[in-house]
Amino acid sequence: MQTQNSDGGWGDTTLSLSNISTTALCWAALSVAGDNTEECCLSLEAAEHWLREAAGGLKPEQLVQAISARYGKDRTFSVPILTVLAIAGKLGPGRTGWRRVPQLPFEVAACPHQWFKWLRLPVVSYALPALIAIGQARHHRCPTRNPFALCVRRLARRRTLRVLKAIQPSGGGFLEATPLTSFVVMSLIVSGNARHSVAKEGLAFLCRSVRPDGSWPIDTDLATWTTTLAVNALSQHPNFWEILPVSERRRIHDWLLAQQYRAEHPYTHAAPGGWAWTDLPGGVPDADDTPGALLALHHLDVKDERTLQAVKAGVSWLLDLQNHDGGMPTFCKGWGALPFDRSGADLTAHTLLAWRVWQAQLPPELAQRVARGIERGIQCLSNVQRSDGTWTPLWFGNQHAVGDENPVYGTARVLPALCALEGDVADKMRRRGLQWLLAAQNSDGGWGGDKNAPSSLEETGLALSALKAFAAEPGFEKLSEMATECGQKWLIEQTDGGQEFAPSPIGFYFAKLWYFEQLYPLIFTVGALAKQDLEKRHDNLPAAADGAFGLR
Fold first, then answer.
1. CA 59 vs CA 73, 89, 91, 507, 528: distances in Å
2. What number is the average pLDDT over the span 384-406?
3. By C-alpha distance, which of 100, 5, 9, 17 is closest to 53?
């Protein structure tokens, strides 16, 4: 109740605008777990008023339509939310309410995993635990009347529960994520599986993850991601070798090597060679953290046989993941039916940059594969560049921009990769993207997620980092210099000379589920002001004893 917005709704974070998904979840939670105090009743009344405005009313069919419309054909998040509303009795009594929850085909999880990309599942690749658990809950509470489907689902229940058990990480949390793990546990309980080991271990994970203030983070740890971001930002400093002497670089290097997956992943069946966002057991190798790790290893400049073997494995892993359109998906090649399984411009550019910096040190055959992969990736970026010159990212958004998109982030991520590449296609794309990025700068000197969006440390830092590569771009030298000076001044003022780094919601995860990360504004500011006095006062990001950067 303390985090309810003044309009009666809730956002995904304490800094987020109200949205129908989180407001509906909080409304359901307070209805079930709340009390009869005046404060709770007033909170529920305000939430219901917000929902009436947003959904057109509180009738079950109105709520279902509004929540489903937010996510379109992607049911990765809409079905879990509707499941919570059904559990809370908000969609109608008994079977009537559960009938309004779409039936997820959990029985397909009994098929060989190689079939999944051909089955056109209504959830993204990493949501298999929710597919199984929520599908079983819906089947248990409102079984189908189709005798054939009923028989198949009854026969598949035990087998798919074994699959769920097999893909549960040793720490109990699926993807180290509170929302996904919570949906799985709740669904198992209402389907009569409260004593199942998956439910018990999931509950244990949730109990361990709770914060002292009673809240839960969306992810328990981003250590690998923030470590690679920090290394890559610090590497822009002219005194990088002094900031991170060889002993420190070796420590971080060894820690990063230890995070590389050396065997097939039991969850996504990803081949060895990739990196996840975390060092905890619930991580999954992906096409953003893997290039981030490859770039960090290059900057750390520890060239031993272990490094080269790890790099070859990581480069090969990304090559094998590349989609037919030349772009990079997040986790799995070939699903492609839903947003987070499609190619992303930010992931593609990140991968191209990592391939490029290591290309000359790879064996000839692998280097040739990289050359072909880069060529295909450039073509993908050309195909998805918008008419105004921008690229939109897959994994980051901005709540103040049209459609919650973040073309500043996407464009700022693509431009450095294009600067490292050659050819007329890359050159034309780069100049169009640079022209838009310069025009998107706000009058205060900063950047937001889009033109006219409020400036933030995150987007301003990323935009300035992208502009560094254009200091000598013909026709843009003066504009880039002026934009950089104004942006740096804004950053210095907003951070009180490097003393304060207020985060903003910049990311979204699980199809429009927002979060903010305290290290993002610090890291992106450091990368942008690599040659300024500000950075000299913040050379040392908070590093753990194991060599990882992160706020835990």
1. 22, 12, 8, 32, 50
2. 94
3. 9
Please give the pLDDT value at position 551: 44
Distance of CA 28 to the CA centre of its chain: 26
pLDDT in tens, 247-270: 999 999 999 999 999 999 888 788
Distance CA 551, CA 173 (A): 19
Rg of the chain over Cα atoms, rounded to whole angstroms, equals 24
Half-sphere exposure of 365 (CA within 13 A, CB side): 2
**Extents of the domains making up the chain:** 28-209, 223-536
- Residue 345 near residue 327, CB atoms below 8 Å: yes
Q: Which residues contact 78 (CB under 8 A, 6 or more apart)?
A: 67, 68, 70, 71
- Collapse the DSSP code of 169 into the 3-class scheme (helix H, G, I; strand E, B; otherwise coil) and give the result: coil
Lowest mean pLDDT, pick from 45-49, 143-147, 279-283, 465-469: 465-469
Tokens of 248: 């420190």
For 77-133, the three-class secondary structure string (H helix, E strand, C coil) is: CHHHHHHHHHHCCCCCCHHHHHCCCCCCCHHHHHCCHHHHHHHCCCCCHHHHHHHHH
Backbone CA torsion sign across 21, 27, 33, 38: positive
* Architecture, CATH, for domain 223-536: Alpha/alpha barrel (1.50)
Instruction: State pLDDT tens for residues 353-391.
Output: 999 999 999 999 999 999 999 999 999 999 999 999 999
Angle at 261 (CA atoms; ends 219, 179), nearest 5 degrees: 20
